[in-house]
Amino acid sequence: MTSFINFLKYIILFTFIIVVFSCGTSNQTIIEKPVPKYNNPNLILFLVLRISNDSINNKNIIEVVSHSKSSGKFKPNTDSNPEYENDLSFELFDQGKLISSTIIEHPLFKTVEFTDELNNLTKKIVKLNKKEFFVRLQMTNDSNNVRIFEKLKNGSKTELNNVKL
């Protein structure tokens, strides 16, 4: 029995020595590398805008309510660029270079279809005074501004706003 106890003492002593010597300090140098900025070329810009008619100056004013960016990419568009009587165009710039242009129907001009007294289908354009709307644009990390233009029927293209991102 005493030999068994002696044997256990040696095992405990041996284990203790191994633990003590294996817990030494190391002289490792930790080098922290800066995390590179994630460059995602596929971003979507969401712009919430408010457009209103300034009746005193007889022009439309557009302002940004909010904007946000999200990762993502639009599906390829197979439709040709639509033609509207009145439209807004959004030109996205990357370091001063035009990278995309998006045209939407002017939010202040709504086309209403109805039947007249003779039961003929008639179309009328109704002009609103104020409208809030949103637009999505495909962008990159380097996109730095959006220029918003208005083209009215039989009129020239007029810049309404230049939004810095």
Provide structural commentary:
With 165 residues, the protein is mostly beta strands. It contains 1 helix and 9 strands. The chain has one helix at residues 2-22; strands spanning 43-54, 59-71, 87-94, 97-105, 109-115, 121-127, 130-139, 143-151, 157-164. The strands form 3 sheets. A 4-stranded antiparallel β-sheet has the order 4-3-8-9, with no helix packed on it. The longest helix is centred in the N-terminal third of the chain and has 21 residues, at 2-22. It is elongated, with a radius of gyration of 34 Å. Mean pLDDT is 83; it is low at 28-38.
Q: How many helices?
A: 1
Estimate the global geometry from the Cα principal axes: elongated
The secondary-structure class comes to mainly beta
Mean pLDDT: 83
**How is the biggest beta sheet arranged?**
4 strands, antiparallel
**What low-confidence regions span 5 or more consecutive residues with pLDDT below 50?**
28-38
Total count of strands: 9
What's the end-to-end separation, in Å?
Answer: 84 Å
Helix-strand string: HEEEEEEEEE
**Strand share of the residues?**
over 45%
Helix content: 10-25%
User: What is the rounded Rg?
Assistant: 34 Å
> In which order are the strands of the major sheet placed?
4-3-8-9
